[in-house]
Amino acid sequence: MRREPVPQGYPKAGMRILEIVSGVTACGATVHTLQIARELHRRGNAITLMGKPSAWVLEQAQAAGVPTVESSMKRLPLRDLKAAAQFVRAHQIEVLLAHMSGANNFAVWLSRLAKVPAVLRAHAHTVHFHWRMAHHIIAVSEQTRRYHITRNLVPPSRISTVHGFVDPARLVVPDKGARQAVRAELGLSPSEFVVGVIGNIIPRKGQIYLVRALPKVVARYPQVRVLLVGVVHPPRYGERVRRVAERLGVAAHVLWLGERKDVPRLLQALDLYALPTLSDMLPMALLEAMWAELPVLATYAGGIPEAITDGIEGWLVPPKDPDALASALIEILENPEERVRRARNAHQRVQQSFTVETQVAQIEAILQQVAAQYRR
Questions:
Q1: DSSP 210-231
Q2: What is the bridge-based pairing of β-strands 136-139 and 159-161?
Q3: Per-residue pLDDT tens over the stretch 288-328
Q4: Can you list the domains of the chain with their CATH numbers?
Q5: Per-residue pLDDT tens for 137-156?
Q6: Which residue among 39, 235, 276, 326 is least crowded, i.e. fewest CB within 10 A of its CB?
């Protein structure tokens, strides 16, 4: 385990927290981890972020002035756990906060070895023993909370919901001409109606159902273009989606952009954000689109209805229903004033309930409570 130098002026007030994340690349979970670390640091806590060597999140944290420490997070042999326990004792860490499966596993064993409580943040639906070993769990949606109570037998008193969030500062796009510039880069004209689907292109996200909805839509509105943004996994799913688009005669209406590092800028070029997902917690990309005042078309899956009410902040349809998606898309295209109304409502909803300031304050309160209970 290698520890980066701790900057001078390390906060003396607040809590001493070790935040642990096992993701190496930038994704929703690692971005949230970074945002939590920065906000806890800003709020006066002595927080150190632990990640794997060369992880994206460590470099970003260091740039933000958050102390970091490296660990491979292997449970066997015990070298990494012992080194981490030594770090915890030396820095009088009061509580662990872990994200993602590998870090959650590591944290519950580190908790036993170093004798500090472990709080796990539930970004996903998985059945695993580590949920029962945690002192507390923070679920990103009520639906996720219910899942872990039912499937992992977590006592209701040991799991709380703190919804996902956005960092408005991350979404600021200084370039006022970004919409025209991005469209020009993608070969899109100002008159085209651009639907963005942002998130890894995986079966669970349901992109194939949106493609199946397109024939009915483009027959009436040929100016519709769908942007698929994200990593394709597995490749055979991407090939299947392409084959369906070609068979239905809508391949020319679907643009594959791959992974993008400029999502806030890309949002400026969209007319609609779509999420035809089959199962989801509360995707950060959805909240970011809402913050950007984009109309949203999504499904009733997972925690999405906890952020969007159909008819108020957006349009919701059942999962796996191309006909419902097509009908909603046509309604959206034909009602520009309704698009504006619901998009404004969505922005206000995020501003009130899903920002980094409001949510991290709740996470901080849970960490304080867990640490206090453990000391008794």
A1: HHHHHHHHHHH-TTEEEEEES-
A2: parallel
A3: 999 999 999 999 999 999 999 999 999 999 999 999 999 99
A4: 2-165+356-375 (3.40.50.2000), 168-353 (3.40.50.2000)
A5: 999 999 999 999 999 999 99
A6: 235
